[in-house]
Design goal:
The chain is α+β, with helices and mostly antiparallel strands. 40% of the residues lie in helices and 17% in strands. The strands form two sheets. Strands 1-7-2-5-8-9 form a six-stranded antiparallel beta sheet, with helices on one face. The two termini are 38 Å apart.
Length: 280
C-alpha cells in the first residue's frame, strides 16, 4: 500500500490492511489517512511528528495514530542499517457501523478515544509484540482476530499521548505538500538560524499569512515548534554522545544562548540537561 502525502489508498473490499515497511528509512513525507494505524517498530529509530508534537521513536515501540492525524516519520539513518515497521490499518467502520458499538466490545471505547491524539504504549508490550509476530503467517480472518486482541491489550496498557492538539480537517494535496515542505525544512535545518522570511518562502506565503496558517494548524508558533525539534535532537545527542559537553550539543542543535537553552529544555523536559543525562 503506497503512501502519498495526506492519502493512503486502501485495497478495495479489504476491511483490514497489514503492511510491512522494510527500508533504509521510513516514509518521511507528512501525510494523513482515514485509517487508524497501529505500528510496531521492530528495528530503527528517529523522530515522529504527530499533530502538533514531535516525539522520538525507537526499536520496540508500539504506536497508535488515529484517523486523519497528520504525521511524519523521520528515520535516523545513522542509528541502524535498516528500518522495519509492522502496521495494521483499519477504520472505526471497517467491520460495519455498529460493530464497535456492541456491548461485548465496550472495552475498546477507551482505545478509540485515546487514538484521537495518537498514543505510545508504555506497558504490556511483550504480549502485543507477540501478536504482531504472528501476523506474517496468518490468513485474513486470523489477522482480524489478532487486531481485536491487539486493541484489547492496548486498552489495558499504560499509554502516553503523541499529540496535545490535532487540527480537525482533511488536508488537500496542496495543503499537505505545503505543511510537508515546512516540516521537512525545519527537521533538516534545525541546527541553522532559520528566519521567518526563509520559512514563509518555503510555504510560498507572506510572513503574516504563514504565521496565522501555522498557528491555526498546530496551535503553536513555528518557532515554538522549531525549539521542540531542537530539544528532541539535543536529547538524542545527550544519550548517544556522552563525550560531548552540554554546551557543545546545544550549539550543534541551533541554540546560540546557553541560558535560553537551559530554560527551554527544563520547560519541555521537566529537568535540566545535566539531570537528563544522569538518567541514562
Amino acid at each position: 500500500m503506497r503512501v502519498l502525502p495526506f492519502k493512503i489508498p486502501k485495497p478495495k473490499d479489504e476491511a483490514l490492511v497489514y503492511q510491512i515497511d522494510r527500508e533504509k528509512v521510513f516514509y518521511s513525507q507528512l501525510h494523513q489517512h482515514g485509517e487508524i494505524q497501529i505500528s510496531y517498530i521492530e528495528k530503527g529509530s528517529g523522530s515522529l511528528i504527530v499533530g502538533d508534537s514531535i516525539n522520538e521513536y525507537k526499536q520496540g515501540d508500539i504506536l497508535v495514530i488515529g484517523g486523519y492525524i497528520p504525521h511524519v516519520f523521520r528515520s535516523d539513518a545513522n542509528a541502524s542499517d535498516e528500518s522495519v515497521m509492522y502496521t495494521l490499518f483499519f477504520d472505526y467502520n471497517s467491520f460495519g457501523k455498529e460493530f464497535f458499538h456492541l456491548t461485548d466490545l465496550a472495552l475498546t471505547h477507551d482505545f478509540f478515544k485515546k487514538s484521537e491524539h495518537g498514543m505510545k504504549v508504555l506497558s504490556n508490550k511483550e504480549k502485543i509484540i507477540a501478536l504482531f509476530n504472528q501476523l506474517p503467517d496468518q490468513n485474513k480472518v486470523e489477522r482480524i482476530a489478532s487486531l481485536l486482541l491487539v486493541i484489547n491489550e492496548i486498552a489495558k496498557s499504560e499509554t502516553q499521548p503523541l499529540a496535545s492538539f490535532v487540527y480537525r480537517k482533511i488536508y488537500s494535496d496542496d495543503e499537505g505538500k505545503r505543511m510537508s515542505s515546512v516540516f521537512k525544512f525545519a527537521m533538516e535545518h534545525y541546527h541553522e538560524q532559520i528566519t521567518l522570511e526563509q520559512i514563509s518562502e518555503k510555504a510560498n506565503m507572506s510572513k503574516n499569512a504563514f504565521c496565522r496558517y501555522f498557528k491555526k494548524r498546530t496551535n503553536k508558533t513555528f518557532f515554538q515548534f522549531l525549539i521542540e525539534i531542537r530539544i528532541e535532537n539535543v536529547c538524542k545527542l545527550i544519550v548517544s554522545q556522552p563525550e560531548l559537553s552540554i554546551s557543545m550539543i546545544s550549539e550543534q542543535c541551533g541554540f546560540t544562548n546557553i541560558a535560553n537553552f537551559n530554560r527551554k529544555f527544563k520547560e519541555l523536559k521537566g529537568c535540566t540537561p545535566s539531570k537528563y543525562r544522569s538518567l541514562f
